[in-house]
């Protein structure tokens, strides 16, 4: 018998597992007393950044085929019927670095659900008809589907622009040439070489016992064997100056994203400091930050304005971050949610100017303390159920980064006021901002932003006070000064 140390959040459990069950996989295990559910996860270093050149979209198609294309003796339809009967599902999350499968079942259905979950991952049948449907879905997304949402288009276009020439530099679903090149044999080969026992991190939480851990681990050992094929992170693009890309589509509003790659990941000594500083500037779908207070609350420009040091994928339409989307290389980004087109040049200038001021002057001592208190309390809300706690732990083990649930509270407590402002200055460079704007009339927007001396904001009712009027004058006269700019039709962004 072999004793395997199981990685737990706040718990180290030494359990006896048959040697044949776990020679290569060390599962993450989070037992929860009195739980009536079990949560499963299997995460692979197999995201879109691992797509072979010329086959962009292969990771996405393979992952979707594993879930939808049948497994074992079951067709994809049979699998869905059985999952429906059990009142549950199997989710697939594809991002740049990771592909994650996760599921949840009640204890009473465990004996039926766990084999289904493992079978989807270890015995995909890759039905040919499903292959063509999945590829068509991916092609449809990158040609037209991405344009259904102004905000989604802006986010994807920004992600592509700041990662030009980098493995992160194409949509998760691929590109039209890449998808056209993929065959079913490529999918099968990619599964055999990448979805391997060496590339997986597995976890289980909730109503966990030693027998379940052993059976689940043994079931996942049926994955193909191979060698780790993780790509060494490529150098992030470096920008000498600002560039502006205006994306034109049929829309009555205008949204803005801007920022640049940063060399700060969750392992970096400045991560907590920069995270706190960015929270003070603007936290996702929260009214806490400077940008929201000045742009939304005081001026009513839009629904919200936020800042990030990691690419942010939201769950639903709230402040919760999707798991399985952490990356080894990050970017600073500001999101100005869509504004009335007439005020878009003013809003763009205002956001850029506010971020420059944030870099130049940093946080005030009171702002630092208030933000630290707010963020420390928020960390405890990041994972309120065993499934999310498992997700944080598995992501950390898969990428070799700290588990933020465990490390962030202490890191925040140890910060000094000067640490945050120094980190902001060290890593955020406004002169390098890459700016992506989605609007209806790209030429008119660019003309107003770059050629007019001032672009004042229009107030529908009432005049601002003297202080705000002076601020508005400065924002309206701000010079964006890009090194280059272009206007592209939305369907030409990835050409």
Structure commentary:
The protein is of the alpha+beta class and 495 residues long. The chain has 17 helices and 13 strands. The protein has helices at 58-68, 76-86, 110-122, 128-143, 150-162, 176-181, 184-194, 210-220, 271-281, 290-297, 344-361, 365-379, 386-399, 404-414, 417-427, 442-451, 466-476, and strands at residues 2-7, 12-17, 28-31, 37-44, 90-94, 99-106, 200-206, 243-248, 253-262, 305-308, 330-340, 434-439, 484-489. A 6-stranded mixed beta sheet has the order 10-11-9-12-8-13, sandwiched between helices. A 5-stranded mixed beta sheet has the order 3-7-4-6-5, sandwiched between helices. The chain starts with a strand and ends in a 6-residue tail after the last strand. Residues 1-23 have low confidence and may be disordered.
- What's the helix count? 17
Radius of gyration equals 24 Å
Estimate the helix proportion, in percent. Answer: 40-55%
**What global shape is seen?**
globular
The number of strands is: 13
The unreliable regions are: 1-23
In N-to-C order, the SSE pattern is EEEEHHEEHHHHHEHEEHHEEHHHHHEHHE
Mean of the pLDDT scores? 92
Strands across the major sheet, in which order? 10-11-9-12-8-13
Strand residue percentage:
15-25%
Distance between the termini: 57 Å
Specify the biggest β-sheet.
6 strands, mixed
**Helix-and-strand structural type:** alpha+beta
Descriptive tags:
495 residues; alpha+beta; 6-stranded mixed beta sheet; 5-stranded mixed beta sheet
């Amino acid at each position: 018998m072999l004793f395997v140390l199981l990685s737990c959040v706040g718990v180290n459990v030494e359990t006896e597992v048959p040697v044949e069950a776990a020679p290569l996989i060390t599962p993450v295990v989070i037992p929860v007393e009195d739980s009536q559910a079990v949560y499963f996860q299997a995460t692979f270093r197999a995201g879109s950044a691992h797509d072979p050149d010329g086959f962009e979209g292969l990771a996405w198609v393979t992952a979707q085929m594993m879930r939808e294309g049948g497994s074992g003796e079951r067709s994809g339809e049979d699998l869905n019927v059985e999952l429906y009967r059990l009142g549950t599902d199997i989710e697939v999350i594809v991002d740049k670095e990771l592909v994650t499968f996760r599921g949840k079942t009640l204890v009473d259905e465990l004996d039926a659900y766990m084999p289904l979950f493992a079978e989807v991952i270890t015995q995909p049948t890759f039905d040919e008809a499903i292959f063509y449907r999945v590829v068509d879905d991916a092609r449809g997304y990158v040609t037209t589907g991405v344009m259904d949402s102004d905000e989604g288009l802006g986010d994807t276009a920004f992600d592509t622009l700041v990662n030009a020439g980098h493995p992160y530099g194409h949509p998760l679903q691929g590109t039209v040439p890449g998808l056209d090149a993929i065959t079913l044999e490529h999918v099968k080969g990619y599964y055999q070489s990448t979805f391997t026992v060496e590339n997986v991190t597995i976890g289980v939480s909730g109503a966990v016992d030693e027998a379940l851990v052993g059976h689940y681990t043994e079931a996942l050992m049926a994955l193909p064997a191979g060698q780790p094929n993780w790509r060494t992170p490529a150098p992030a693009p470096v920008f000498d100056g600002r560039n502006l890309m205006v994306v034109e589509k049929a829309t009555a509003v205008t949204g803005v994203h801007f920022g640049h790659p940063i060399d700060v990941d969750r392992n970096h000594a400045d991560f907590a400091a920069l995270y706190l500083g960015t929270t003070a500037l603007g936290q996702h779908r929260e009214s806490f930050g400077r940008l929201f207070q000045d742009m939304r609350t005081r001026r009513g420009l839009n629904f919200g304005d936020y800042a990030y040091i990691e690419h942010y994928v939201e769950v639903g339409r709230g402040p919760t971050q999707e798991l399985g989307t952490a990356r080894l290389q990050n970017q600073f980004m500001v999101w100005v949610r869509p504004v009335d087109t007439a005020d878009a040049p003013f809003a763009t200038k205002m956001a850029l100017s506010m971020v420059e001021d944030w870099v130049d002057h940093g946080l005030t001592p009171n702002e630092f303390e208030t933000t630290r208190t707010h963020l420390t309390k928020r960390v405890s809300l990041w994972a309120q159920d065993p499934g999310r706690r498992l997700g944080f732990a598995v992501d950390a083990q898969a990428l070799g980064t700290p588990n933020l649930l465990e490390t962030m509270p202490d890191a925040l407590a140890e910060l000094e006021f000067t640490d945050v402002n120094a980190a902001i200055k060290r890593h955020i460079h406004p002169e390098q901002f890459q700016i992506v704007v989605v609007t209806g009339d790209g030429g008119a927007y660019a003309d107003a932003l770059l050629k007019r001396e001032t672009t004042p904001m229009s107030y529908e009712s009432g005049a601002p006070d003297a202080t705000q009027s002076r601020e508005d004058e400065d924002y309206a006269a701000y010079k964006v000064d890009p090194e280059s700019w272009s206007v592209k039709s939305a369907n030409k962004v990835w050409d």
